[in-house]
UniProtKB/TrEMBL annotation:
InterPro entries, alphabetized: PyrdxlP-dep_Trfase, PyrdxlP-dep_Trfase_major, PyrdxlP-dep_Trfase_small
Alphabetized SUPFAM superfamilies for the sequence: PLP-dependent transferases
Transmembrane segments: none
Ranges annotated as biased composition (Polar residues): 406-420
Protein name in UniProt: Molybdenum cofactor sulfurase
Biased composition (Acidic residues): 466-475
Species assigned in the record: Dendrobium thyrsiflorum (Pinecone-like raceme dendrobium)
Domain of life of the source: Eukaryota
Length: 682
């Protein structure tokens, strides 16, 4: 029998001391809002929410026992309620969709309060009806229906020149100084100004405190900071990623060339939590050091779903570090909990794409705190790294018309004739338009290397002054040009149709609480369902699926890292799982977990858990680093966005259950051959 666990979601524990009626009501209200980590403590998120106040933190301190008890109760009752004493040894034995949803709804009655998300999905994102999009999540600017309506209107009658037309916008690469772009970018064209204004409003970032620079993608934003941050004096670069990130690797490569000492947080097996003692030691001040360096901090692991307390950013700032907040891992409304005015990271990186599950092309935004921009250095190389202007579709300045847009997606069929390397697969938050600045060929990389070496050989004060004067001269020219065009551009946008961002509007209409509650129900159900799959007639009841990171947990993120194992206990290649899922219209991604450390209790598992991987595109400075970076775990990843529903999770579960058939992979191989398609490589 399935019992409701709603009362355990937000009800304070009875162990709390007696309070007045009003204070008890306040406790319930605060406990109801405990949605994500903030400034509470390093061990568990506090109850503060949004704009924090001293009174709220006093309430949070009183209720910390209640909060932990409520979360513990959530895990206990969720685990004991769903599929109690049940295991599934055959894919045909799992309950059908309607029965599963009935029991899911009984266990999570709070899910019914998220009906608005289903309504939005049905009316605005009809393309998701037969497609499970779990290979990326994030922030989409437009809806699928909005795009289709615009296409239909354009085909029936020519739109006016000022109208938005599919694909609504494109990007145009430009060469500029990062500091001057921050200083004068606000005076850009009316079209781009409208987009920037809406994004800053959506993220609750103040234009008085931060400047915004648009880049081609997330990797370009990280590389820009890698090329302009003063690693010669602020030597350290500390990253907090339990998985291999292409964007962060690009930044590390640039930073090491410029003298940075690169460090990384470590993560404890099996929960993949940050090793607190080591992290504190790396962040702490040393008497001999006046300047520290740069901390790159994500809100959550996009692979394992582990959430990290924001207090790490506060601790870093107190110890003299500059901080990058990687907001690409945030949910669409997670910035609402940050209290940006409290923490004030020096840099924030976020990415936006056009339509979820349809068109991932877009751009990234690099927010630079205005009081921190002076720390950035002038860099010749940085001028050619992915800074872009956002222009109306069809008005590109340096891209061919045939490359204006693309409908390709990470969420789409994997080409059968392509041996897709993992490094070539889009990672979370990575977006790009076709075309790009000329920085990727071998000859140009060699040219960049020579420029960089020449730049670092001569560090005399005279050259530095000349560069600053050159930048000031360039800035003056920009101001002069913009002053002549700003008035015209502002008048132009007033004559345009209103800029509509239905994707952002949908996330705003749902709000933080609804999105978190919805995804909390879905991801925890899926974790339990996957753990109930077990090989038949296997020794010790071998589980089909291994999950890495947190399992059932109140505040786990909506991302899941897992692997599938056959009846002999051997891992099925994650890329093979991804390809087979694609044939079932389920889009997954792959990743590589790293920086894993084992305590004495788990030391005996180390050799059997970790595997070696060759990094073809990674520059490693010494053999020890190379050996360490090659060790990790290749995994399958499923990331749930705010438009995900229960059926998405069920369809993934039903697909994975097919691996309980020992001949499933072989059958799929020959089916592929029979259809005259390329054989899947095992």
């Amino acid at each position: 029998m399935f019992f409701s666990i709603q009362k355990f979601l937000f009800q304070p524990s009875k162990t709390i001391r007696k309070e007045t009626k009003d204070s008890k009501e306040e406790e319930k209200k605060e406990a109801k809002e405990m949605l994500s980590p903030c400034l509470g403590c390093l061990d568990a998120p506090c109850l503060g929410h949004g704009e924090h106040t001293n009174s709220k933190h006093r309430v949070a301190a009183i209720n910390v026992t209640s909060a932990r008890a409520a979360r513990s109760d959530f895990a206990k009752f969720t685990t004991s309620t769903l599929f109690s004493n049940s295991h599934f040894t055959n894919h045909e034995s799992i309950p059908p969709l309607l029965d599963s949803f009935f029991h899911f709804a009984e266990a999570f009655p709070l899910y019914h309060e998220t009906q608005l998300a289903d309504d939005i999905r049905d009316s605005e994102y009809s393309h998701l009806a037969d497609h499970v999009c779990l290979d990326y999540s994030g922030v989409n600017l437009f809806s699928h229906a909005q795009m289709n309506q615009s296409i239909a209107a354009s085909s029936s009658s020519p739109p006016p020149p000022s109208a938005w037309r599919p694909p609504f916008f494109s990007i145009s690469y430009k060469s500029a100084s990062l500091k001057s772009e921050v200083k004068y970018g606000e005076k850009d064209s009316g079209f781009e100004f409208a987009i920037r204004k809406r994004i800053m409003s959506f993220l609750k970032i103040s234009g008085e405190d931060y400047g915004i620079v648009c880049t081609a993608n997330r990797t370009a934003a990280f590389r820009l900071l890698g090329e302009t941050y003063p690693f010669q004096s602020n030597k350290r670069l500390l990253t907090v990623y339990d998985y291999e990130s292409e964007a962060v690797s690009a930044m590390v490569e640039s930073a090491e060339k410029r003298g940075a000492k690169v460090m990384s947080a470590s993560f404890s097996w099996p929960g993949m939590r940050i090793q607190t003692a080591k992290m504190k030691k790396m962040l702490s001040k040393r008497k001999t050091e006046k300047k520290k360096g740069l901390l790159v901090f994500p809100h959550m692991s996009r692979m394992t779903g582990v959430r990290y307390p924001y207090l790490w950013m506060k601790l870093a700032r107190e110890n003299g570090w500059h901080v990058i907040l990687d907001a690409c891992t945030l949910g669409p409304k997670d910035m609402d909990t940050l209290g940006i005015t409290l923490i004030q990271p020096d840099f924030i990186i976020c990415s936006f794409f056009k339509v979820f599950g349809e068109n991932p092309a877009g751009f990234a935004t690099l927010f630079i705190k205005k009081s921190s921009k002076e720390v950035l250095q002038t860099s010749i190389l940085a001028r050619s790294i992915g800074m872009v202007s956002i222009v109306r579709a069809g008005k590109l300045s340096n891209l061919p018309e045939e490359e204006v847009d693309t409908t390709s997606s990470f969420s789409g069929p994997i080409p059968s004739n392509s041996k897709q390397k993992q490094s070539e697969i889009y990672e979370e938050g990575e977006t790009s338009e076709p075309g790009g600045p000329p920085v990727s060929t071998a000859e140009e990389e060699e040219e960049d290397k020579e420029q960089q070496e020449a730049y670092h050989e001569d560090k005399k004060e005279k050259e530095k002054q000349e560069e600053e004067e050159e930048e000031e001269e360039l800035s003056s020219e920009i101001v002069e040009v913009l002053s002549k065009s700003t008035k015209h551009n502002n008048e132009e946008i007033e004559n345009q149709v209103e800029v509509e961002f239905n994707g952002l509007d949908h996330a705003d209409s749902l709000g933080l609480r609804v999105i978190h509650n919805r995804l909390r129900c879905i991801i925890n159900w899926l974790v339990i369902a996957l753990m109930k799959l077990q090989h038949p007639h296997s020794e010790n009841g071998n589980s089909l699926v291994k999950i890495y990171g947190p399992r059932v947990k109140f505040d786990r993120g909506p991302a899941l890292a897992f692997n599938v194992f056959d009846w002999k206990g051997e891992k099925v290649n994650p890329v093979l799982v991804q390809k087979l899922a694609d044939r079932s219209n389920i889009s997954l991604s792959c990743g590589f977990l790293q920086k894993i450390e084992f305590s004495e209790k788990y030391e005996h598992l180390k050799d059997s858990v970790l595997e070696e991987r060759v990094h073809e595109n990674t520059i490693v400075s010494d053999n020890k680093k190379k050996e360490d970076q090659n060790l990790g775990i290749a995994v399958v990843n499923a990331s749930f966005g705010y438009l995900a529903n229960f059926e998405d999770a069920y369809r993934l579960w039903a697909f994975v259950a097919k691996f309980l058939d020992a001949d499933f992979v072989e059958k799929e191989r020959w089916t592929y051959v029979a259809l005259n398609q390329k054989m899947i490589e095992l």
